[in-house]
Amino acid sequence: MRRAGRSVRAELWDRLSASDPGLLRLTAGLRTVTAIALALFVLALVRADVTHLVAAAITAMAATFAIREKQRSRQAVTLVLGLPVALASVSVAALLNAQVVAGDLFFVVLIFCAVYGRRFGDRGTALGLIGFQVYFMSLFVGASASALPGLYGAIVVAFVCSALARFVFVPQTSAGTLDRLRRAFRARLAQLIAAQIELLDAGPEDVDKVLEMVRVRTARLHETALMIQGRLEDGTSDAAVARLVQRRIAEAEIAAERLGLMLLTARSAERADTLTLHLPGAHLPSGGALPVRDEATAALRRDLEALRLLVLRPVAENRGTGVSLVRNRLLGYREEENLPQASAAVQDVFRGLGETARAVLGLRIALDGPQDESDDSPATARSREELDAEDAAIGGSGEDTGHKEEEPTGLRRPTTRAAVQVAVGSALAIAGGELLSSQRWYWAVLTCWIVFINTASTGEILVKGYRRLLGTVLGVVAGIGLAGLVGHHTWTAFALVLLFIFAMFYTAPLSYTLMSFFVTAMLGLLYTLLNTYSMSVLVLRVEETALGAACGVIAAALILPVDTDRRTNELLTTVLDRLGEVTRAAVDQLSGAPPADLLEKARDLDQALADLHASTQPLTHPITPMRARRDTARYVVALLETCAYHARSLAATAELLPLKPSIAADPRLSGVGSRIVHNIEAIRERVADPRATAEVETGPSIASLLEPGTLATPRYGHVTDRVLRHLQRLDEVVMGLARPLGVPVGQRKGQSGVKQVT
Q: N or C of the chain: less Cβ packing under 10 Å?
């Protein structure tokens, strides 16, 4: 019973970890709610009035969510600096309360400074947010000079409670967050393998739905890997440990994605296109016919399930159980003599199982330390020896590959441009808001401010404004019902406020519309507590929100505009730069060039691609009227994700050269890769400057180097065969990328890279 109870708890914990990697949303919501609850409790003990309770709640929320720095020492310094900023902000707001023009002018200046402060990093951003939110709080509660002493006390209590929540009650360390992210990675890896099992079992009528599940879980695994990479430096003891974990995470991700491709190939009876895993709506080429049901496929399903359990099973439970036998069997598939009698495609899946099991073993050792080796088979012992040799080599320091690009100055600097845009938009919102209401005009300013946060183009601001308005309308409907239910039951209302604040922070990364809904519902309760609730107030809230969103879009479109096409083209150019760098470095190293820090280059590529994916959301949003443009944007991003997968795989293989005698450098590969790199650079030139004359070049297919007419029979050995297949697919996908981007195709002059190899 106890073991069953532990299993249930472990399964629930794994599901929570997978749905909220690192528990970042959960801890953010709990920390904010704890800070507010503590502040309310302290002020209730001294019988503070409702105005001070509301002021403390808003300030505690601002002081908690504004600070985003990872190091606890830096968080503490920012929190200390935030207190005088908050006191100064409420003081000026109270003193200018009766002076409309001066107050409005100062508010616009404060908004400009708060946004401009982003150029100084996380601390500048946090102090700007605190200054703005406390000024907004002052307007919300109607602060006056006579009320300043009480507000000072409420603000100080709020900051102290925020510190207690952050450092005592809901602490969050870089190492702890990284550890939870690692667990989330394993949980999401297990979920991906479970989806792959369903793909193996699915009938023709269900295969598309299951394939979409595989696609989504592959993307989620990659998302978690990126989150881990972003926290390795602060969460590990030294650079060698960080590089080791980064390598093992990358290996596991690549192995799992490759296993999915092999399963697709086994199902479709022809080599599956990598693009299938990245393009929504893509179908299997044969319509998803089931593979032959025989002894080999039954063993394949059994071993996929065993691999999933191997990923999830805690190390402490591996000793004295059948887990070691399962691990030995899976790692045995790395040896040709252990492969079952089956078709070439199904045998390829078993090879993929062996490589994925090896990646899981390496991940275990990197994350959990040395393990019991008493039950190792010869194949497992060889895998451990390879991993130990790699660990020793990875411990060396890598070169600094940071991209130091010239930073724009003046109005071209993003923070300066955004500050000017927000200031102009806020001025318009103040003028229009006061025409709607001389008492609630600041709601329009708040919406204008919010739609500019974490946006960089007019399209992003338009989509965010739409989501804000939709969430506000739904929140008003909920607020009407809640106001009638709660009435003037103060502590019931505050309890619901805390619940909505938690929901706001928990859903913020998932849905901006949901977050806006919870914010508006919470504000309806606060209005009720302040005895200012009415239907007209909630309707005014919608009107002010619409006005603020419109002012933000107008300012973004007319003042130093950055249209979505320009923004996406800039990021697309960056992605192509990084893709070319990774491909060139990997091919050079496979050809015998000195080692480079390929892991860092691959990480830069992944981050650039993540930025591009975010910037294309306005183009791919369901409400966009330009369907053809939406489909093109999705197709281009899917092609780039496919290119990134093959480039990461080449980089991972290239890094094994100094470590595995079975992999030898081949100088002839440089000729194969030269056309690919040239084509990537040609596309990059055309995207950066449509007047450029660069063309992509065609030539003999790299597929001519592989044994014709088979799916998996190697011509040069499995590793070289794999490298050539990645180069082949990368070549094809880069050529495919030229078409939607309007890059002309020309015939390559002279001897081709393929001929040089053959």
A: N
